[in-house]
Amino acid sequence: MTFNNAAAVLIIFNLENMSEEIKSLNFIEHIIEEDLANGLPKEKLRFRFPPEPNGYLHIGHTKAIGISFGLGEKYGAPVNLRFDDTNPAKEEQEYVDAIKQDIAWLGYNWANELYSSDYFQKLYDWAVLMIKDGKAYVDSQSSEAMAEQKGTPTQVGTNSPYRDRTVEENLALFQGMKDGKFKQGEHVLRAKIDMEDPNMLMRDPIMYRILFAHHHRTGEAWCIYPMYDWTHGESDYIEQISHSLCSLEFKPHRKLYDWFKAHVYDYAKEELPMLPKQREFARLNLSYTIMSKRKLLRLVEEGVVKGWDDPRMPTISGLRRRGYTPNSIRQFIEKVGVAKRENVIDVSLLEFCVREDLNKTANRVMAVLDPIKVVITNYPKGKEEWLDGENNPEDDSAGSRKVPFSREIYIEKEDFKEEAGNKFFRLKTGGEVRLKNAYIIQANEVIKDTEGHITEIHCTYSTDTEKKVKGTLHWVSVKHAITAEVREYDRLFMDEAPDGHKDKDFMEFLNPNSLRVKKGYLEPSLAEAKVGEQFQFQRLGYFNVDNDSQADALVFNKTVSLRDSWAKQKPKPQQNQNQNKPQQQARPTISVIQQLGKKYTNLPEEKQLKSRVEILKLAENVSYEDLEPLFGTATKKVGTRIAVALSLSVLLKNGQERNEAIDTFISKALEDKNELLVKEAQAL
Q1: Where's the tRNA synthetases class I (E and Q) anti-codon binding domain (predicted)?
Q2: Is 155 exposed, middle or buried (0-12, 13-18, 19+ CB in 10 A)?
Q3: What value does the CA radius of gyration of the chain take, rounded to a whole number of Å?
């Protein structure tokens, strides 16, 4: 190859890589890159997250947090945490403290902690200058009269009878408002813009109102408070924010944001030369979830939940207490991405992210939540053994622990049936199962009470642990078990859009089974568990130690189940109303999995993730007999083999015993050149 040819290849390679990088940028990053290309110095980039301290942050806020702080990390730019505290009637220091704790817990660091109340004097001084310039006036109408004369989206407004007050009269009244000479609601200060503007926000918006209330930072120093639209944009300007990022509901406010900014710029352009640029992104909407602070407050005040940090709440503090991890939430936000249009994200994606994260980090332990006693009749009375249990197969450094075994153990009631078919891989009379980390047992007989309820299962054990059996059960030694309160949390609402029904109150859709409290029997290694520690209760789900725990009274919260238990509850699509037409026979589940696998490697990352979640859900309804024929899938059909690996992971989690065919499939997958297939095989 000649030098020129080599150079050409290198240029093409670089262009292709640049193209890939450009494609991967979201639309906000495109805006920033364009501004930098047009001469904005990189050191002038500055972002902010501006919460109102009138409630706790919820999962919806994490998107705004992730965008602003993520851009700060990407560009090495400072990010301010600014509290827009303009309404003392609803704001409290408790909310300020909670917001700071939540953001720090998510792993973000702010450059400056600021408050809009820091700028009250400057905002007041600018308002006085606007009065002097004829751009603001004091209105003395009632709120009802102002609302009426403001018009409608299709009908222009009419001017206030006080719009043409003299500058001197306006200055005197505004000073009197500040000095507390007037009653609440007697006067307001309005911007003088255009009562016929098609954007109703431009029809002489209120800038200041009289409010006699204690402010959490300024106390009683002020009795007039600036409105949000006036304060927010000017605070951005004072802090010299380069890009003011907010959710789509603020898009109509952008015109007013720019109007205020343009007028204030004339007063401070030498000191504050940069004009912020407001841009909007789609907010995060989540199925089965309420995002309104007002409605969340109602849940707290009416005692539906036990506080803002109740593990059923979508607040960050509630998610933290439930056992969600910062990494799982950040991964969720990354997968959701940055969009321009509103959409609803299925809450199962959030649950998927925490499962993925905890699967890597949470130690496996055994707990029984609905116990039935098993007596191993051929195991010596009084004997006990301490067996080795692997802490986490996903983490080589996690090590192992000792688990006690004795003649009497607890298993879950649902893991035993007196009579069952061939597809029941748990314990049944005459059948054998493996006890996790221990022996193989066979059920011989049951003991029942006078009402016919089984109270004990009598079994014999075998020391031949190499024997092939299909089922594996978790268990706890009766003699060594510790007890704990276990709170099994579920979704708070049963409807996908609880506040999406105009004719119904969202409270009508509350899930009556969102909390079940049980007495759990746990292996003794958990006796020293600390608040916040997370575990996988094998075959049951992920749990963490709750704040209510005491040294001798442990409390565990269920974070999430091992699989999506809601998938099966979703209503099926309605059948064709024309009964004369023959109904199509449903495709076997394994065929649907195969079809998803065929396209898997050609999908973009976001669709690949959705396909992965769908395969894992479908695999819950697939038997080993369905899956085994696909172990011999041709090497070139990588997508199908990935789908098989995903399905196999579900079967193994649900108690399928490993065998030679499974081991052969996994070893071949580990030798493949496709990284996705190797990754799934390593997880097995």
Answers
A1: 472-546
A2: exposed
A3: 32
Cα angle 614, 620, 622 (rounded to 5 degrees) comes to: 105
The distance of Cα 503 from the centroid of its chain, to the nearest Å, equals 28
Question: pLDDT category, 570, cuts 50, 70, 90?
Answer: low
- Choose among 198, 176, 199, 202: nearest CA to 187: 176
Q: For residue 163, what is the enclosing H or E element?
A: none
For the annotated catalytic residues, the residue numbers are: 52, 283, 293
* Tokens matching residue 236: 């951005």
Which helix (H) or strand (E) element contains residue 349? helix 347-361
Return the bridge partners of 363, or none.
Answer: 535
Describe the strand order of the beta sheet including 206-210 as a list of residue ranges.
136-139, 188-191, 206-210, 224-226
C-alpha span between 357 and 289 (Å, rounded): 22
Mode of pairing for the β-strands spanning 367-368 and 541-545: unpaired
Sequence-ordered list of residues with C-beta below 8 angstroms from that of 334, at least 6 positions apart, any chain: 66
Predicted pLDDT of residue 175: 98
Max Cα distance, the chain (Å): 101
Least trusted range by pLDDT, from 22-26, 594-598, 631-635: 22-26
DSSP 518-587: EEEEE-GGGGG--TT-EEEETTTEEEEE-TT-BTTB-EEEEEE-SS-TTGGGSPPPPPPS-TTSPPPPPP
Q: Point out which residues pair with 206 in neighbouring strands.
A: 190
Q: Which of 242, 258, 101 is nearest to 193 (CA)?
A: 258
Show the beta-strand stretches assigned E in 292-391. Answer: 344-345, 363-365, 367-368, 371-376, 384-390
Q: Rounded CA gap, 310 and 489, in Å?
A: 10
Instruction: Give the integer Cα–Cα distance in Å for 563 and 654.
Output: 10
How far is 585 from 583, CA to CA, in rounded Å?
A: 6
pLDDT at 572 over 50: no
442-472 tens-digit pLDDT: 999 999 999 999 999 999 999 888 888 989 9
CA dist 571 and 567 (Å) reads 9
CB 311 within 8 A of CB 557: yes
Do 517 and 486 meet the contact criterion of CB atoms below 8 Å apart? yes
Cβ count within 10 A of residue 121: 11
Tokens 């402010």 correspond to what residue?
A: 215
What six digits make up the tokens of 629? 């024929």
* Helices and strands (DSSP H and E) totals, the chain: 19, 29
CA angle (117 as vertex; 113, 122 as ends), nearest 5: 110
CA dist 62 and 78 (Å) reads 18
Helices 254-268, 120-132: axis angle to 10 degrees equals: 90
| Kind and range of the H or E run holding 435 | strand 432-435
